[in-house]
Amino acid sequence: MTQKFEIEMLPVLDTNYAIFVKCRTTGKVAMVDAPDDDKIFAFLEQKQWRPSLVLVTHRHWDHVDGLEKVKDRYNPLIVVPEAEKDQISPHNETISPGAILPFGAGHFTVLSTPGHTSGHIAYYLQEQPTLFAGDALFSIGCGRMFDGPADAMWEGLKELRRLPDETTLYCGHEYTRDNVNFALSLTPEHQALRQHLQWVEERRAQNQPTLPSTLGFEKANNPFLRADDPEVAKAVGQHGAPKAEVFAAIRKAKDQF
Ligand SMILES: [Zn+2]
Asked: How many angstroms does the Cα of residue 59 sit away from the middle of ligand 1?
């Protein structure tokens, strides 16, 4: 069955992904974040797509530096997190967690995912369960905690964890190999991760992406979504500690990995 939305992911800059969503019913095109990379225009021209909507996840340069050029060329509606509006330009509209944004024959729900930056948000496409997580969640990892605090970041990840297992996960970076190696350093006997590492190595050797993932896979295997699993807590020496502290310890261990 053809899906209602066509989703394309383009590797840009060093490790970023630019992501495009086309509504097959209306022909409308949205993009998630706007890295500054001419590959984006080459891609859009080749597809003959003109974005009418840009969904920004957070203020970091590698997600917003292309906004000016995208605006000049396509003049889309640029939606940015209300909490980071002063640091992101240009933009037309601000949005906060809980909002529902119509797009073509569907809707995006805005989710609160603070921690990487304090105003970071993620977008969930309801009609074709898909999460655009920006730098809040990566495959087998999560974003570095620049702003924190750890308890808010953990709450945001728990909100993502409540999405259905079949949800397709797109995120802002290709970091999977590093993430899987780190996860295996915590739980070396985790068979699914061992197998996954092999697949990831093969994909990367051929310069192929390891994304998208699914939330079902991430819930079972991503240590940052498993801070309340005693096995992971024990691995970072936090057995029985409050979950947000376990999460902070996993994040710190990854920073030092
Ligand atoms: Zn970032």
From this structure: 7
Torsional class of 75: left (φ above 0), alpha (ψ -120 to 50), beta (otherwise): left
Task: Tell me if residue 146 falls in helix, strand or coil.
Answer: coil
Please tell me the distance between residue 62's alpha carbon and the centre of ligand 1 in angstroms.
Answer: 7
Q: Provide the H-helix boundaries in the chain.
A: 39-47, 61-64, 67-74, 150-161, 176-186, 191-205, 215-221, 230-235, 243-255
Residues 189-232 pLDDT 10s? 999 999 999 999 999 999 999 999 999 999 999 999 999 999 99
**Residue numbers belonging to the annotated binding site:** 58, 60, 62-63, 116, 135, 173
Inter-residue contact 88 to 56 (CB < 8 Å): yes
Q: Taking each helix axis as running N to C, give the angle between helix 39-47 and helix 67-74, from 0 to 180 degrees, rounded to the nearest 10.
A: 30
CA 175–ligand 1 middle distance (angstroms): 13
Which residues sit opposite 214 in a β-bridge?
A: 168
Ligand 1: distance of its center to the CA of 58 in Å? 7
Q: What pLDDT, in 10s, does the model give residues 86-140?
A: 999 999 999 999 999 999 999 999 999 999 999 999 999 999 999 999 999 999 9
Enumerate the active-site residues.
58, 60, 62-63, 116, 135, 173
Strand partners, 56: none
Annotated binding site for Zn(2+): 58, 60, 62-63, 116, 135, 173
